[in-house]
Design brief:
Largest interface: A-B, 95 and 95 residues
Distance between the termini of chain A: 73 Å
Number of strands of chain A: 18
Structural class of chain A: alpha/beta
Largest sheet of chain A: 5 strands, parallel
Shape of chain A: elongated
Oligomer: homodimer
Radius of gyration of chain A: 27 Å
Chain lengths: 344, 344
């Protein structure tokens, strides 16, 4: 540009073909110039891009390799050229409390043009400004929601998909990637996609109880909606035999009434009846409750679909809190305690 | 108080014996009156508490059961009576980036009088105000740090223990509870102890890669400092046989050079060479890097102590990103994909 007697300050926009939307070098240029990137879907190559973006150009553009430099006689409105690169952030709200939501997620929610999600979570994620478009669905069709969000972003919008907890743990992260993987549309693949982590439900429940996840653990979903029940039984058996602390997601529902009871039978083969179990219900929400019960006394009726169940390992320890309840933790050591260990 | 012609607005302080510091009813009273709770360590029972708190009282206190109401002639300085109830918050910074730290943790750090932690994490948690006392240790003696923090809080201070990630996952949460469990000191048990969850390192690495933890998974530490290596081998074998996605913490160090290689041998018995492995190094920190390699090509030399290793299950899928790197996710389903599945 210097050679042409032009200042970088005079650049109105970087214009690129949609199929190149994700190329890092284009973003480097736009970022270093601090100017907007605009995408065109029906033009490829520098001459065609200039023609489509600025059809009434007085001067021929300078073309050097894959880059064209077009000089307009009048100021250019970048927003009138093509569209912006769409953004999709898959955001985790955490268990519910605002004080547990990462600032990154809060900022993405505040800046989004469109918010897509299951109604309950969208309500938790608000309030939103009047010009933000809410797409709240009342069903659990995760893949439909994911596709809807991707198509909005592919149209140049800035979109957030809302998950509770961590979107990467039994939540919308996998659904969005599955939907993207299943599409051949370059506009979908060209968006700026970010997964923003959050605190998952088991972490909230564990924190309230003490530190039951302080050593090797697993998180298993007991839902057999999308996996065979035999796989769940096999995983339970291995995890119990490995003496891992276990957190159960989706432990029970009206449509899955017997599965938790069967899961507990499997676990009880390997774990003593006095093993502490943490039941965290709605942790991080106003109706939060926490119970600690011995494995031998736990009944499926103690659990509902809003409960996270954490089953201790052979080393998970319980001791009284001064307020009459109990602390639960899994020590840092296994087998023989180190000479300096704190608990018995 | 009404019966005595006194207004609740005139209450200067609620005074209680140290051994009762955690009793919920005392906090209910202090909270509903909006007045400070002060603790005395050397007096028990209402008459003794009044005598210790206000030795020069002109009038006899009203005593009703366990409660005494003492009326002073002059305004009372609550801060001069005994001490406050100490607080200890075990705080998770998340992987490193400020945008991933929960607001609750940030507020606890900002409000603490004392900050206790491993030097690196204390530095990450700052900046701190001039009147905040920093207790940064340069060693890894977790139990010593925990005891130090508990004893500061037991003296009436407001203390934070700093962990990276989630303090409940291979971090200071279990150490603090172990130290508390090992103490018979009622002052230690009387403090207000809170574990504040955070985003753990595996979650940050998973988010950058896509959603490899989108289905059943486990987190295992490969460190045999505090558990026998045979236990680790057994757990690896079960977790691999159960086809769980696995995240490894403490995968390798100078003092533990061969363990990761042995762990990979065990995993390779059960998993195909093309299984995607995510290597997230310093994710959420300035030097962040992310690699995705097939299990068959992974070498222990690709990993150092600041790397989180996430090994996919048989369903974990990889597909190209438009920027030339790869997305990794573990689908929501297992076995036969549902009719509407997105990928492959």
């Amino acid at each position: 540009m210097g050679a042409r007697g032009l200042s970088p300050l005079g650049v109105a926009a970087i214009v690129a073909a949609e199929r190149d939307a994700a190329r890092p070098e284009i973003h480097d240029v736009a970022e270093s110039l601090g100017r907007p990137l605009r995408l065109l879907s029906n033009a490829n190559g520098p001459a065609a891009l200039v023609q489509a973006a600025m059809p009434n150009l007085a001067e021929q553009p300078f073309i050097a390799g894959p880059v064209a430099l077009a000089v307009a006689q009048l100021p250019v409105d970048a927003a009138a050229i093509g569209r912006a690169r769409g953004k999709l952030a898959v955001v985790g709200l955490g268990p519910g409390a605002a004080e547990w939501m990462a600032p990154e997620a809060r900022q993405a929610l505040d800046n989004a043009q469109d918010i897509v999600g299951y109604e309950t979570y969208v309500r938790m994620a608000g309030p939103f400004a009047g010009d933000q478009v809410i797409h709240a669905s009342d069903n659990r069709e995760e893949l439909d929601r994911a596709r809807h969000a991707l198509s909005l972003a592919a149209g140049g919008r800035s979109v957030v998909v809302v998950s509770s907890g961590d979107p990467g743990i039994f939540a919308m992260g996998a659904a969005v990637l599955e939907a993207l993987h299943g599409s051949a549309d370059p506009a979908w693949h060209g968006i700026e996609l970010t997964v923003m982590p959050g605190i998952s439900a088991a972490q909230g429940a564990a924190a309230r109880a003490g530190a039951p996840l302080g050593h090797d653990f697993c998180i298993l979903s007991l839902s057999d909606n999308l996996k065979p029940w035999e796989v769940i039984e096999k995983r339970l058996d291995h995890a119990a035999a490995a003496d891992l602390v276990m957190a159960f997601y989706n432990p029970i529902s009206r449509a899955r009434p017997w599965q938790l009871g069967r899961a507990l039978e499997i676990v009880r083969v390997h774990r003593a009846p006095r093993t502490p179990v943490v039941l965290g219900r709605d942790v991080g929400r106003p109706a939060e409750s926490l119970r600690v019960v011995p494995l031998g006394e736990l009944k499926p009726d103690d659990v509902d679909m809003r409960t996270v169940v954490i089953i201790g390992s052979s080393t998970t320890t319980i001791f009284p809190r001064a307020d009459g309840t109990a602390w639960v933790y899994t020590p840092r050591w296994y087998g023989a305690p180190p000479p300096d260990a704190g608990g018995s």
